[in-house]
Design goal:
heterodimer; A: alpha/beta; Rossmann fold; six-stranded mixed β-sheet; four-stranded antiparallel β-sheet; B: alpha+beta; Jelly Rolls; 8 strands
């Protein structure tokens, strides 16, 4: 990578730089004429004589001559400003393109680092390098050549003028330059060193903050926050110190510069004055020189600012780039090549030595042959070199000496297109990507975009622009929206068969029940798949029929019926008989929705609900007044939390007090309404509901439907013939609520639903809905074991010639044993390398070795 | 039925006789109100017990598993509390309870009952007194049975 910023800029933008310079030079005479014209207009057109004048063989009288000059002036104003606009945009665009190129190059280099290198660097340091630290480079690139050339040119012209007037004065004008030229770089060097220090210190702060975030449970569990406070605060002080030093020096440079600049006129007046008195120089010439010298200050200042900026940006560039150039970086072709060499044959490790940089991560002079198409266990406790051997076999790390080959192909010389497609490796520390289950399962099939996304109109134009920009900045032209799933590699024909195969694999690793449950709990958009929604509605009808026919079941659920009150549902559901379209809206927010607010006010239900809320609050306050906060009773049973209790205590007191002022605020009132909305009468037997109220609520539904649901999209009516997108698939299947006052009603109904789902063949589509479940940041919404099994499915779906598993399903329990048997069956006929710390499992495999301290302790008994 | 009627029923349970009303209201509130149809099981012998039942209306058969099959040993009715042994000490259910007709039952979970006792020590005292009296009666019955058997 280019070590110096200027080399980088010149290499990738020399053409543009020359162009910028040309345009800048062209703009110079225009600016000059623009400054001269007003003088001409005043002196020649307004006050001049001798009209008519002849210009380009045309004759002009005074008025039309004035108009001509003014029009020229106007034209030049437009041209000059237009040119400025154009060149600024051009510079900005160039800067952004170069920045994009630089950032992409840096990211690509991160992926080219060898795995052991990542032990030495942290993401907390790398991220600010790629994002914020190079930011200034972009703004600088447009100015890098044009500014010094232009301002330097100006300076030379002005100096030339002074020298022409009098060489002695010329010397006086530049007399301070050698001093400035000597002192300022010296001072600037210190500043550069300090900025380097500052950049590194900020990186360290970023790293410490990042580490605190990832280790936050540890901090709390050990009461170590004080230590971290001190640590970061210390670094912040360091930062302050460096910054303060930088300020001091920067302003000192400015001081020297200003001082020197104002010292020169001193010589002018002294030497010039002497020359004038002696009669060797006219007074007019002296004044002209002094005026010219004033004009020198502008370019000189610009040049100095440029010099400081260059020093600053260069050091930033270097401090970043030096981190991305480790000696052993992989060649870029290893990542970009797209040809696959078939890895057919035995895995052979030949006198392989490897060191991961610490004890327990070493392999010493190890030779091993894993025959093709056989299952083979590598046994050894953690730190025995087991993981290293498996990573060597997967081509993830390279041996220090010796050779790892498969079918005679040296893995170190192969590209990732071969290694990553021919070998499926699932290590002990799996990573789940933020995204859906589907994204994670098919991750191992997404090597290149395969089927182009069809585009037309604006979309196509936008896409073409994206492509041309990518080419301009040496970014890849891969289309993210294309279909990347490689069906052929997975051994299937289409997306459908791939989904089906994924189901088989999920079942094989016992993840199917989990995915099914996630599917039931997921929401799905019926516009995407009408047929599925129809089938769910079909089950809903059959389920309702079955419930109606079976008195046992009928007692367990309360189905939605627009005419009757549902005691197992909340008051809000009962009142609206609709659900908010946005499932993220919580009960606390419902009373404040504008539609709801107006509706409650218009129907007069507002005060009734407030009364109910008040009664509930009163009861809660009374019941729990003497209960201590840490008993936990309140949390489980009441719909008020312990923290809310004092607040409601206040509301109750205010409401009860005789004086009307200040009374309840609007916020208090909505809190009471929200409390009433949460009431589930069958669970919270507070005696606030009577038949009249129930009837009134059922009556109000109609009005809510006609006034709100039919007019706004904020609510979806509960309708037996319609799929309700805000509810989960499960709630859509059971069109009602399991009764809260019947023992195990939920479980018993679930059981019925499950069997009906199985009967109607809906299990599969529900699991497919589960494929779209979002797993959270790095799979945080899955359990550790789910994450591992999901990664296993990812590996199996690759359908690779060689599968390498490390520390997966190594338990002695029945479940793991069965899983291992299934894995061997799925992978039969292919090479299957299984790493385990558990020696007892070795016998299950056709062959095995035992590792200890990086050496083979026991070859299998063959 | 609302809290008030439940409190009324609780007051008639001997175990809660000496406990003041606000605490009974709290007990009622944190309990789950369950409905059972004839033939449904409240609990099964040998299972782990996690809740006690306070019968508001209806009756249940107490059945014990014997070598000759299930045998009804007693019947419990309104205002009685059953299964409280299971929530005070960790023993499996000693009998099976089956609803005879439709029943209304308050179910108190073990955790909540213990929390309540911890929160209100006089309530624990009351429970202790009742249990001690029951023990005394059982001991007397046992002694009587022994002397009866010896005779």
């Amino acid at each position: 990578m280019e070590k110096s910023l200027f080399k980088f800029i010149w290499k990738f933008s020399s053409r543009h730089q020359v162009f910028i310079l040309l345009v800048t030079v062209i703009s110079y005479p225009i600016t000059y004429i623009l400054l001269e014209l007003p003088k001409l207009i005043v002196n020649d057109a307004v006050q001049g004589d001798g009209f008519p004048r002849e210009v380009f063989t045309f004759e002009f009288d005074q008025i039309s001559y004035l108009v001509l000059l003014c029009m020229t002036f106007l034209g030049l104003v437009i041209v000059s400003n237009g040119l400025k606009l154009y060149i600024n945009v051009f510079k900005g665009r160039l800067g952004e393109r170069m920045l994009r190129r630089l950032r992409f190059e840096l990211f690509q280099r991160v992926l080219r680092f060898r795995l052991p290198h990542f032990r030495k660097i942290s993401s907390g340091e790398i991220i600010p390098m790629i994002t914020s630290e190079v930011e200034d480079v972009g703004g600088f690139i447009g100015e890098a050549f044009a500014l010094p050339a232009y301002q330097g040119g100006m300076l030379v012209v002005q100096l030339g003028f002074i020298f022409m007037q009098d060489p002695l004065l010329g010397l006086a004008a530049i007399s301070s330059y050698p001093v400035q030229g000597y002192i300022i770089p010296k001072l600037q060097r210190k500043v550069v060193l300090l900025s380097r220090k500052r950049v590194k210190n900020v990186r360290l702060i970023a790293d410490k903050v990042g580490e605190s975030i990832s280790g936050v449970p540890e901090i709390h569990a050990n009461d170590a926050s004080a230590w971290h406070f001190a640590d970061v605060s210390d670094r912040l002080y360091e930062n302050f110190k460096i910054r303060y030093e930088i300020f001091n020096r920067k302003y000192f440079i400015k001081f020297i510069n200003n001082f020197m600049n104002q010292l020169t006129p001193f010589f002018f007046y002294l030497i010039g004055g002497y020359l004038v008195i002696e009669g060797n120089l006219t007074i007019g010439a002296l004044l002209a020189v002094i005026a010219a010298y004033k004009d020198l200050a502008g370019p000189w200042k610009e040049l100095l600012a440029y010099y400081q900026m260059t020093a600053d940006v260069s050091v930033k560039y270097q401090t970043v780039v030096e981190n991305f150039d480790p000696a052993d970086i992989y060649p870029v072709e290893r990542l970009t090549a797209d040809d696959v060499t078939s890895l057919k044959g035995d895995i052979v490790l030949n006198n392989v030595t490897f060191s991961g940089g610490a004890a327990g991560q070493e392999v010493f002079d190890l030779s091993l042959t894993v025959p093709e198409g056989q299952n083979y266990a590598v046994v050894g406790p953690d730190g025995s070199g087991r993981s290293e051997v498996l990573q060597l076999a997967a081509g993830l790390v390279s041996p220090g000496s010796g050779q790892v080959s498969i079918g005679g192909q040296d893995l170190d010389k192969l590209s990732e297109s071969t290694l990553g497609r021919e070998i499926a490796y699932v290590g002990g520390a799996v990573h789940i990507w933020t995204g859906t289950i589907r994204d994670n399962m098919y991750y191992g099939l997404r090597h290149r975009p395969l089927i182009e996304q069809e585009r037309e109109g604006d979309e196509l134009r936008d896409y073409k622009r994206r492509l041309s920009e990518a080419k301009e900045t040496k970014n890849p032209t891969f289309d993210l929206a294309a279909d990347w799933d490689d069906y052929t590699a997975a051994g299937v024909e289409s997306a459908d068969t791939l989904d089906r195969r994924a189901l088989e694999m999920l079942a094989a690793v016992n993840l199917d029940a989990d995915i099914y449950r996630l599917g039931l709990q997921s929401r799905f958009d019926p516009t995407l798949d009408d047929a599925f929604a129809e089938r769910i509605l079909g089950v809903r009808v059959t389920l309702a029929d079955r419930i109606a026919a079976d008195p046992q079941l009928a007692g367990l659920v309360e189905l939605w019926d627009v005419k009757t009150f549902n005691a197992s549902a909340s008051l809000s559901e009962n009142l609206f008989f609709a659900v908010p379209t946005d499932p993220e809206i919580t009960m606390e927010q419902v009373p404040d929705l504008p539609e709801v607010r107006t509706f409650l006010k218009d129907t007069g239900l507002n005060s009734k609900l407030q009364d109910i809320g008040l009664k509930i609050a009163e009861t809660m306050v009374e019941l729990f007044a003497n209960v201590s906060g840490d008993s936990g009773l309140l949390g489980t049973y009441s719909f008020i939390t312990q923290d809310d209790l004092p607040e409601f205590d206040r509301i109750v007191r205010v409401a009860k007090s005789a004086s009307q002022r200040p009374g309840l605020s609007d916020a208090d009132k909505s809190r009471l309404v929200a409390l009433a909305f949460k009431l589930v009468p069958a669970r919270h037997r507070l005696g606030v509901m009577d038949d009249a109220l129930r009837a009134e609520i059922c009556e109000a539904r109609k009005e809510f439907h006609s006034k709100v649901v039919n007019k706004s999209s904020a609510f979806v009516a509960i309708d037996p013939t319609v799929y309700l997108p805000p509810l989960t698939i499960e709630d859509n299947l059971l069109f009602g609520r399991a009764r809260v006052d019947r023992r195990d009603a939920r479980q018993r109904i679930d059981h019925v639903i499950r069997s009906m789902v199985a009967e109607t063949g809906l299990r599969e589509p529900i699991m497919f809905a589960g494929f779209d479940y979002h797993v959270g940041v790095s799979g945080s919404r899955l359990s550790a074991s789910q994450r591992r099994r999901l990664a296993l499915v990812r590996g199996l779906l690759k359908n690779a010639r060689i599968t390498i598993l490390d520390d997966i399903a190594t338990g002695l329990n029945e479940e793991d044993r069965a899983l291992r048997a299934t894995l061997r069956e799925i992978l039969s006929g292919r090479t299957f390398l299984f790493g385990t710390p558990n020696a007892a499992l070795a016998e299950e495999f056709v062959d095995h070795i035992v590792l200890d301290q990086g050496r083979i302790a026991k070859e299998s008994a063959e | 039925m609302s809290l008030e009627t439940e409190v009324e029923a609780l007051r008639r349970v001997p175990l809660f006789r000496g406990i003041d009303e606000t605490k009974l209201r709290l007990l009622a509130f944190i309990s789950d109100r369950m409905e059972y149809k004839a033939g449904e099981r409240l609990c099964t012998q040998g299972e782990e017990g996690d809740s006690a039942f306070i019968i508001l209306t209806g009756q249940a058969d107490v059945k014990v598993n014997t070598p000759e099959g299930d045998k009804t040993v007693a019947q419990v009715g309104e205002h009685s509390i059953v299964g409280e042994i299971a929530i005070l000490c960790d023993v499996p259910r000693t009998a099976t309870l089956i609803a005879v007709g439709d029943m209304d039952v308050l179910t108190v979970s073990k955790d909540d009952f213990l929390k309540l006792l911890k929160e209100f020590p006089d309530m624990s005292l009351e429970v202790m007194r009742t249990l001690a009296m029951r023990l005394e009666r059982t001991t007397r019955d046992l002694a009587a049975a022994r002397t009866g058997a010896a005779a």
